[in-house]
């Protein structure tokens, strides 16, 4: 049986970007289905009844939820090309630790950056702290896992497409504060899987400008 | 070289309990070091500089942080006895999804149950909803993974030792609301790894009573 792979996703989601990049790295063909997050589809509610969130990877009719779990699933299901997680148990644990750190820290803080008034700079400072912690973990390595693009890179790179949003509304220059991280992001952008996936900043800013209006911030 | 395994932990931690149970299941000998969470030890700060939290598993001098990552690491490092995660990628993804659900939902809500005034019952209702979702996933199975005790059971069973705390301060009967989950917990308690690990309710209540006093709730 040929694999039937469907991705329920939303173009601006940093989580969805992870799964799209992982599928591209593995050269898995899939059917992308953009979701309306205001009026959720019957399919989304059926496939992720617990959280009702995208992305959902549907493989031969069976759903896998949560983007980091999806990357691992993709790596285990299509193990041949471009391994995404290290094979050594200790290195795997470290990769999972940093991806978990990104999940625990980035989204909440990043949302506070663009969803609050620009005079409130606390969130921007915290965001820079988080990015500096990640930069310190990266060190002099080419990618987070060393020489090859992998799990932690995939977990983080989607946020890079949002950096311009954080800079605009958070009144901060990530480029000047975290130049090594920017250099890492540019290395990631040499990969087709990443350039294909990351959205344009203008589109994101248009989206966020609308959200801010609906929050009474513009 | 013989394995040197050290666990930095705190007796009442549901996260630490996970790692202790996983080590017991694998019959790994380890050096347990109780931590003072108010005055954190130099060793804890050195081994988990990012989050500064227990549990930390230190294997041959190298730290592994985050309890779910520790269980996976233990399963991969000592694969022989009692596999903790399923070998099938889809089942693995499902197990990780439910453990992640427990992490995202249980602690925050459970703390609201005991750390607020007893007249505020909203948290107790939410806790029952979460437990009913888990009960529904358990269904008629013996354990969450089917016939054998594993990852999701380990992720959840520590909370069972706290049920009496939630019942006392949340003014709720988990036993009458979630009888199948209680039956599952009693099955888990037939395992040495679990009985050895779960603390006595009286000790937990004494601890929480002190915390509530310091929060001005008693």
From TrEMBL, chains A, B:
Gene Ontology CC: one annotated term: cytosol
UniProt-listed InterPro entries: Glutathione-S-Trfase_C-like, Glutathione-S-Trfase_C_sf, Glutathione_S-Trfase, Glutathione_S-Trfase_N, GST_C_Tau, Omega/Tau-like, Thioredoxin-like_sf
UniProt KW keywords: Cytoplasm, Detoxification, Transferase
Record EC number: 2.5.1.18
UniProt GO BP: glutathione metabolic process; toxin catabolic process
Domain GST C-terminal: 88-215
Keyword Transferase on entry: yes
SUPFAM superfamilies linked: GST C-terminal domain-like, Thioredoxin-like
One MF term in the entry's GO annotations: glutathione transferase activity
Main location: cytoplasm
Segments forming domain GST N-terminal: 3-82
Entries under Gene3D superfamilies matching the protein: 1.20.1050.10, Glutaredoxin (3.40.30.10)
Cellular compartment(s): Cytoplasm, Cytosol
Top-level EC class as recorded in UniProt: transferase
Domain of life per record: Eukaryota
Catalyzed reactions: RX + glutathione = an S-substituted glutathione + a halide anion + H(+)
PANTHER family with a match to the protein in the record: GLUTATHIONE S-TRANSFERASE U24, GLUTATHIONE S-TRANSFERASE, GST, SUPERFAMILY, GST DOMAIN CONTAINING
Family under the similarity heading: Belongs to the GST superfamily. Tau family.
The protein's role, per its UniProt record: Is involved in the conjugation of reduced glutathione to a wide number of exogenous and endogenous hydrophobic electrophiles.
Record protein name field: Glutathione S-transferase
Lineage: Eukaryota, Viridiplantae, Streptophyta, Embryophyta, Tracheophyta
